């Protein structure tokens, strides 16, 4: 079985972020029932990965994977896993990785 896991999500104190840093906004709406939108800003072009994990750290859905230009981006998640099945109600983590930067946030699905 080939599985991807994520562990150890810790809160970070709020601080100002320059346009030269990776930035990911809170998803909206949150909580959501049918869909949510995730906005992020890339300081430079490069390989991007945006993935959703359950609280056990198991990969649920890959929302973006591959090269993207610098600038503002948005992804809409329909609350389904990589197999097209609706996920259960609960808390999920979404992680953006680009270059040497990583950002992680929580979202809530309500059914």
Widest β-sheet, arrangement of strands: 4-3-6-7
Strand content: over 45%
Total number of distinct structural domains: 1
How much helix is in the residues?
A: under 10%
Tally of alpha and pi helices = 0
The structure class reads mainly beta
Q: Average pLDDT across residues?
A: 88
Order of helices and strands: EEEEEEE
Ends: how far apart? Answer: 29 Å
CATH class equals Mainly Beta
Tell me about the largest β-sheet. 4 strands, antiparallel
How large, in whole angstroms, is the Cα Rg?
14 Å
Structure in words:
This protein is mostly beta strands and 111 residues long. The chain has no helices and seven strands. It has a single domain, classed as Immunoglobulin-like (Sandwich), CATH 2.60.40. β6 (90-98) and β7 form a beta hairpin.
Please summarize what this structure is.
The protein is mainly beta. The chain has no helices and seven strands.
């Amino acid at each position: 079985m080939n599985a991807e896991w994520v562990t150890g999500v810790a809160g970070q104190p709020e601080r100002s972020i320059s346009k030269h840093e990776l930035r990911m906004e809170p998803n909206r709406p949150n909580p959501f029932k049918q869909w949510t939108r995730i906005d992020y800003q890339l300081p430079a072009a490069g390989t991007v990965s945006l993935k959703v994990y359950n609280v056990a750290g198991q990969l649920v859905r890959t929302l973006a994977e591959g090269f993207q230009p610098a600038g503002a981006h948005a992804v809409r998640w329909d609350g389904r896993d990589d197999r097209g099945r609706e996920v259960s109600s609960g808390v999920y983590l979404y992680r953006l990785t680009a270059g040497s930067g990583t950002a992680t946030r929580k979202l809530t699905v309500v059914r």
